[in-house]
Amino acid sequence: MTPPQRQRRFPSPQPQPAPPPPREPKEGERKNPERMFVVGGDGEARADLDLVTLIVARAEPPPSATPEQSALLRLCTAPLSVAELSAYLSLPFSVVTVVLTDMLADELVEAHKPLVRQSVADRSLLEAVMHGLQKL
């Protein structure tokens, strides 16, 4: 049996090997590009869409549609909010609004604003509920 080797409490620093110099890309090689969100948008004003606006497809994806537009049209067979579309496609909300603005202009989708409820309920409705509860 071999006795355990003693180790120093504070080992002497080992010189670190020098990192290799950065290699220049050869012709034909490209560096990893940053992800760019450049889709559509002619600098025109965006459609007035908020996170809860419901989007419904009106047509099948045309052959000239971009991949984002095709994916949106396939998802929107049933009404979905812009927030859900953004999450399903893993795209920022601003990118989805640009794509949807182009699609609204081409009449490929319909946008439905959310229903805004009255801040105060109708008096007759409240009275009917009150009378119904009293009869119980």
From TrEMBL:
UniProt superkingdom: Bacteria
Segments of this protein annotated with the region Disordered: 1-33
Pfam families noted in UniProt: DUF742 (PF05331)
InterPro entries associated with the record: DUF742
Comp. bias intervals (Pro residues): 12-22
Basic and acidic residues composition-biased segments: 23-33
Transmembrane spans: none
Name the UniProt record assigns to this protein: DUF742 domain-containing protein
Leader peptide range in chain numbering: none
Organism name: Streptomyces cinnabarinus
